[in-house]
Design a protein that fits this description.
Oligomer: single chain
Structural class: mainly alpha
CATH architecture: Orthogonal Bundle
Number of strands: 0
CATH topology: DNA polymerase, domain 1
Helix content: 55-70%
Largest sheet: none
Low-confidence stretches: 1-5
Strand content: under 5%
Length: 98
């Protein structure tokens, strides 16, 4: 588990917006992103939270491909975020990744 070092916690409204952004147009993405947000987001460092939010700015087809191991984002921080999501969800048995 990552040590919580978040010096800039989100306001409740900002947190609600991030949670809403996890809801996508594809069920597979909802199944990958929502549990990660619900169970892991609050324990991420501030930088990890920022990277997660940046990841959510990408289109659904990119997110789907990255999460299903059909490519990687060019940004190394986003690659680490994808890997973190996959690993945490696998630990909980939330999503089988290809």
């Amino acid at each position: 588990m990552t040590t919580h070092t978040n010096d800039n916690p989100l306001t409740p409204d900002q947190r609600a917006r991030v949670k809403w952004a996890c809801r996508r147009g594809m069920k597979e993405l909802d199944l990958a992103l929502m549990p990660f947000f619900d169970y892991e987001y609050d324990d991420l460092s501030y930088d990890e939270q920022v990277d997660f939010i940046r990841l959510l700015e990408h289109p659904d087809p990119d997110l789907f491909n990255w999460l299903m191991n059909k490519g990687l984002p060019q940004d190394e921080a986003l690659q680490a975020t994808i890997e973190l999501i996959q690993n945490k969800n696998k630990q909980r048995g939330a999503v089988p990744y290809a």
